[in-house]
Every structure is written in structure tokens, then in C-alpha cells.
Specification:
flat, single chain, alpha+beta
């Protein structure tokens, strides 16, 4: 049933009430309310934000929170969950990269079987821009436009009481230019992203000799082509006070939150609780268990915090931009298909 907390959430009337229904998810101590999207323009008699391309463009806001070579954290405001999830899925599965696809094993006397060793090699991230290459057709041969070639030749020997080449690392993969690749990539040689990925361990006398060809592909085909280690989003939390929390209760609220969301400010001579950093909130709802009648805890339906962590083949910012372009191309394809079908209907 609908409890008092839920009714209090919608105590306001008119446009403010509809705005809250559209924009916020409500969390109580043990339930979640108002999780549905209201996308159809006839859902409400009073339309607050007209469902149109113009209003979407006006309300869309993208803001970078932090950016490193490994991770991008970006706020995307003004979209709904289906669109956010489409971006996430495209980043994981449809942004192309280069990865080892064919391994020709000439010698392998290590304890690792050929197929396991080939699988390990395929998962090594390759530092190459896929825009410099085309996808290989199954009937075409490898050439400078559709492939990257590497070789691996390592033998473990014992010298002066030490084992040399006991560990086979990713930096031992040697790039072999195909055609004019040597000239084209002379300022940015093709190589593995990381030099210290362990491929195998050898004992004296054991050796590995192999030749590898990389192809352009997407994560939907195999995870080795996925450009991200992880890509996820969360709804931005929102916290408001139904009434002021002061004095000892303010101290209690601050100490109750394990993430340090709340702080205390002196308003005159009275200690008053305030929201210090809403982004630290994990919606554990510990605050609601102690102050169920004084706080409103929710999440913004149209405000997403994306975290994009790259494996290193592409910059995280490039992954986000290329995912947006892929989504745009998909929409254009659908529009063309729909227009073609409408033309057939009119005929």
C-alpha cells in the first residue's frame, strides 16, 4: 500500500507535483516508489516539458566531473533511462577496437595448451586506433588496411645459475609492419597497451614461437574487442529536509551516515544539519531509519553519472564520443527504414 512517506512526497499540488513525479524516484526505509518513466506526451493533461527535439536539445547537459587516462566520469542530464542504457551498452559492445584474432603456433613446449595460450594472447589490449583500419571480410586476405601483425619468439635458458626469459610478457610481442604500415605509423608504432602482462611462464628448454594477426571488431562478437573494463551509470541522489534537524539530532544524523553526506552548520547559535556532498550518498537509507519523518531521499530520473574505465586501447573520452556517434548512426538508419516503409504504404 501507499504509506505516509509516499503521500508526503507528493504533498504539493499542480505543476510542482507533476514535476516531482517526472523527475524523482522516492526511496523510503524499505521501498522504492515512482520508478516509471512518463515518456508519452499525453501522460499528463498539463504538459510541463513538451516532448520535442527542441526541448530535448535545450534540456540536455553534459558535464565532465573528472578525466584521467584510465577513467572518465561525466554527468549527463536531460535524458531518460532507455537512452542512458543504450549508450552504456554501445560503449561495452559496439565501439570497435583492434585485437588478436588469428594465432599461428609454430612452437609451444610450455605447460599451457595451444588453445589456452591463443586465448590469453587474444585478450591483450592493442594500442591502435581502429579508425586507421577497415573490418576484414571473411573472404579477403590480410593486408595493411585490415590487419596488424605481431610475432613472439621466446626461449627460456639457464645462464650463470639464473633462468633467462622465465616470464613471457606482453612487451615481447614484436610488431611486424605490413605493406606501408612502417611509414604510416612511424610516429606512433603499434604495440600492446601494457608491457607487463604475463602471458606464460617457462622453464629452461621450453619455448614459444608464434605469429599473430589482429583484426578490427566489436565486443558484441567477443569480449576481447570491448574497449572498456567497465562502463556503468547511476542516478544522481537527491536529499531534502521536510523540517530542520537541529541540535543533538543534527550531530546524530551526521554520525549516522557512513559516507559523510551530511555536515553541521551553525545557524545563529543552533547547530543545523545540511547536505554536504550528495554525490557521496550510496542510498543505504541509514538516515531514513533514524529520521523517517524529517528527510526525503530520492534519485533524479533524468540525471546520470557515467563512469567509463578503459582497458587502454582508446581514451575514455573517445569511447564516449564514438558511442554517441554510433547511437546517432543507428537512429539515422531507423529513420531511413521508416521513411522507406511509409513510402511503400503510400504507394
Amino acid at each position: 500500500g501507499i504509506n505516509a512517506e509516499y503521500m508526503g512526497f507528493y504533498k504539493m499540488e499542480g505543476k510542482e507535483k507533476l514535476k516531482r513525479m517526472k523527475e524523482q524516484v522516492l526511496l523510503t526505509a524499505d521501498k522504492v516508489y515512482n520508478v516509471s518513466d512518463y515518456e508519452h506526451p499525453s501522460t499528463f493533461q498539463e504538459d510541463i516539458t513538451p516532448l520535442s527535439l527542441k526541448s530535448f536539445i535545450e534540456n540536455l547537459n553534459i558535464h565532465i566531473l573528472s578525466s584521467t587516462p584510465e577513467e572518465l566520469v561525466v554527468d549527463v542530464k536531460g535524458i531518460d533511462a532507455p537512452l542512458a542504457n543504450a549508450l552504456r551498452r554501445i560503449m561495452i559492445a559496439e565501439v570497435p577496437t583492434m585485437a588478436i584474432e588469428i594465432v599461428t603456433m609454430y612452437q609451444n613446449t610450455s605447460i599451457i595448451p595451444d588453445e589456452v595460450l591463443a586465448h590469453r594472447l587474444g585478450l591483450i589490449p592493442i594500442l591502435a586506433d581502429p579508425l586507421d583500419f577497415v573490418s576484414k571480410d571473411e573472404h579477403s586476405e590480410y593486408n595493411e588496411t585490415n590487419a596488424i601483425k605481431f610475432s613472439l619468439k621466446v626461449k627460456c635458458v639457464k645462464a650463470e645459475g639464473k633462468n633467462i626469459n622465465e616470464e613471457v610478457l606482453s612487451n615481447q610481442l614484436k610488431w611486424i609492419p605490413i605493406g606501408a604500415q612502417g611509414e604510416k605509423f612511424k610516429h606512433k608504432p603499434l604495440k600492446t597497451v601494457h608491457d607487463d602482462i604475463l602471458i606464460a611462464k617457462l622453464r629452461p628448454g621450453q619455448e614459444i614461437e608464434a605469429e599473430m594477426h589482429c583484426e578490427k571488431g566489436i565486443g558484441q562478437t567477443h569480449a576481447k574487442w570491448s574497449p572498456v573494463a567497465t562502463a556503468f551509470y547511476r542516478l544522481l541522489p537527491c536529499i531534502s529536509f521536510k523540517e530542520k534537524i537541529e541540535g543533538e539530532n543534527a550531530v546524530k544524523l551526521k554520525d549516522t551516515c557512513p559516507m559523510g553526506v551530511f555536515d553541521i552548520e551553525d545557524v545563529g547559535t543552533i547547530k543545523t544539519a545540511v547536505v554536504k556532498d550528495v554525490r557521496k550518498c550510496t542510498t543505504c537509507r541509514e538516515c531514513l531509519r533514524h529520521f523517517p519523518d524529517k528527510l526525503i531521499l530520492g534519485k533524479m530520473k533524468n540525471h546520470f553519472e557515467f563512469h567509463i574505465e578503459t582497458v587502454g586501447a582508446l581514451k575514455p573520452g573517445d569511447i564516449f564520443l564514438r558511442a554517441c556517434q554510433t547511437l546517432k548512426d543507428k537512429v539515422n538508419d531507423w529513420m531511413l527504414a521508416m521513411n522507406d516503409n511509409l513510402s511503400l504504404i503510400h504507394i
